Amino acid sequence: MNEVLKTILERRSVRRYADRPVSREDIEMVLRAALHAPTGGDAEPWHFGVLTDRREIEDLDERARAAMRESGIERIVAMGANPNYRIFFGAPVVVMVYGERVLRRTGTHLSALADCSAAIQNMLLAAASLGLGSCWIGLIRYLFATDRCRAPEGFDPLYAMTLGYAAGPDAVRPRSCREGTVTWF
Description:
There is one protein chain. By secondary structure, the protein is of the alpha+beta class. Helix content is 36%, strand content 16%. It is built from six helices and four strands. The longest helix is centred in the middle third of the chain and has 18 residues, at 112-129.
């Protein structure tokens, strides 16, 4: 099996991180992979914010939990009410992914969500190829709809991705593939 397919099939979300810094070189390589993601109409509707300061990550984590408690969705409220829950799982690096509200190249807003999703997938795979753990945090666009979360002008927070070294094998959630999700015609 080639290395690309092996990385895709072996990558898992990490939800507990070791207290070990990630090199700037590795973070930059992960971001470089994001910048090479496919993008509709070559719009590149993304902007990335990198947090490495533990206090800033903890502050953002608390703001996310406060928004979760106010979400009105029972499961999300319960997670936000848990004083031990950390949406960023103690990761030493959090990459915020912002999407343009109106694409400067096309004048629409149609591809930012899809294009930023492709960028995240590239980052997840790049991280795995470098021996780093990661997790896609999809709630961000709902939790920070009013809290701009340092988004540049004209951009909205869409996603976040945690990055770091897994805190042992039990920090990695096993993958199960649901049956019946492919139909051949």
